[in-house]
């Protein structure tokens, strides 16, 4: 099985991750597929090519390198912008005056066909391992056949974006230094911007990582979501009832209430329904936690919500 899928549907290049693998293998598979499509004439060029689907930074550079010379312009789908329910693309490459860099191209293609849009917030006290859970959950969902791509929105200016986990696995000290450099203040302006990202998100499954405090800024962001997962470590367990109340006040459906057992040796699942409860152990930065039983259970729960 390939680690990266690329298919042409009309004037839209559909891309998605396949079998989990390191980035170097993903790049080789993507390159081979693109070369095959060009050689066969499937990618023969034209005025405009739209790209829809998740891609790593490396794959994005590869696609631009391989096919940008074939098309007058290339536009990339961005789920954070545009009318709710319809796909909007941003022009990223242009060699023609017909399209300007940064121009938005809205299509009539419905983003959803009767299925719900799930926007689940990972919340709870600070230092509980939410970012580690986020990355493990993303990997676990990607490994479920037929699951929607888990689109992650980092809605806190702590400098720890989706890149952090991969960087930490290679060089934890460097990742921490970069995080400190990227860290910004949590302002009302940032909250409004992040709330807009969540509100406009139109992919089937969206995971929102928020800060660890019950602030007005988090209230603004979280009220745009649909569901909540609460994660708390030993030092924050007494705050869980307050987080539950905070979520209920925002009309969020709490689907999981989890203990973060940093010193633990194994996960513990207490209940699956009506609420997923139990513990996930040792959420350490830089570790792959995607195969932990609790992470797997939460991934299955979220995919099930998307399927209705």
Automatic annotation (TrEMBL):
<dbReference type="InterPro" id="IPR027417">
    <property type="entry name" value="P-loop_NTPase"/>
</dbReference>
<protein>
    <submittedName>
        <fullName>CRISPR-associated protein Csx3</fullName>
    </submittedName>
</protein>
């Amino acid at each position: 099985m390939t680690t990266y899928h690329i298919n042409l549907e009309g004037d839209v290049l559909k891309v998605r991750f396949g079998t989990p693998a390191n980035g170097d293998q993903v790049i080789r598979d993507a390159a081979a597929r693109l070369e095959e499509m060009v050689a066969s004439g499937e990618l023969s060029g034209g005025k405009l090519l739209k790209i829809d689907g998740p891609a790593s930074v490396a794959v994005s550079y590869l696609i631009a390198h391989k096919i940008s010379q074939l098309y007058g312009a290339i536009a990339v789908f961005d789920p954070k912008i545009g009318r709710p329910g319809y796909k909007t693309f941003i022009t990223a490459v242009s060699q023609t005056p017909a399209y300007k860099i940064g121009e938005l191209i809205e299509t009539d293609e419905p983003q959803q066909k009767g299925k719900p849009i799930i926007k689940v917030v990972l919340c709870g006290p600070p230092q509980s391992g939410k970012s580690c859970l986020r990355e493990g959950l993303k990997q676990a969902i990607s490994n479920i056949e037929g699951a929607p791509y888990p689109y992650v929105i980092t809605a806190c200016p702590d400098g720890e974006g989706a890149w952090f986990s991969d960087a930490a696995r290679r060089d934890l000290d460097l990742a921490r230094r970069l995080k400190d450099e990227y860290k910004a203040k949590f302002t009302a302006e940032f909250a409004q911007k992040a709330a807009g990202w969540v509100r406009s998100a139109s992919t089937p499954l969206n995971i929102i990582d928020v800060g660890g405090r019950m602030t007005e800024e988090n209230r603004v962001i979280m009220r745009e979501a649909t569901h909540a997962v609460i994660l708390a470590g030993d030092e924050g367990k007494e705050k869980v009832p307050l987080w539950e109340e905070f979520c209920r006040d925002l009309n969020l459906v709490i689907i999981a209430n989890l203990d973060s057992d940093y010193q633990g040796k194994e996960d513990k699942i207490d209940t699956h329904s009506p609420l997923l409860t139990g513990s996930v152990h040792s959420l350490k930065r830089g570790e792959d936690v995607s195969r932990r039983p609790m992470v797997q259970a939460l991934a299955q729960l979220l995919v099930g919500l998307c399927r209705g």
